[in-house]
Amino acid sequence: MPKKEERGECLSENFTELFDQLYRDNYVKVYRLALGLTHNFSDAEDISQEAFVRAFHSYHTFSGQSSFFTWIYRITVNVANDYMRQRSKLPVYEIAEEAGCSVDDLADPHLAYGPETRLMVNEVMRVCMAAFTECLPVNQRKVFFLTVD
User: Fold this and answer.
1) Does residue 76 contact residue 30 with C-beta atoms inside 8 Å?
2) pLDDT digits 0-9 by tens, 35-76
3) pLDDT above 50: residue 122
4) Beta carbons of 39 and 52 less than 8 angstroms apart
5) I need a labelling partner for 120 at 20 to 30 A (CA). Which of 23, 63, 68, 143 fits?
6) Angle 49-51-55 (CA atoms, 0-180°, nearest 5)?
7) What phi, psi does 101 have (nearest 5°)?
8) Cβ proximity of 135 and 88 under 8 Å
């Protein structure tokens, strides 16, 4: 890890090369951390990428009092927390609104609905169910679908 004075020079001269090396040296550890937090390969890739993007944009705030990995570790945990918080919100109202129906229609579908409306309500319910179960661990998801089906 370059000293603070060296980092200042790197910022003006070879910042991209420096950060590229930091990325190569730390990506696997960051990815493993994200994977351990999410248990999902795709989410871990997204979180790792976002953590490095944030680190790149905030590198000027890195004081060098700790290792780069310690710093990016904290960034990765914060990104994962943000990511999981966003994923845990169920967008039922937004999904229903986008499809042109209300949550009440989903909760109490009327038998008088025509085939198009029933199809739309069923599709919205399917999308909501996918959003809901996406937040569950795989084994709980399996049990849920065995129970619901």
Assistant:
1) yes
2) 998 887 888 999 999 999 999 999 989 988 999 999 999 999
3) yes
4) no
5) 143
6) 115
7) -135, 180
8) yes
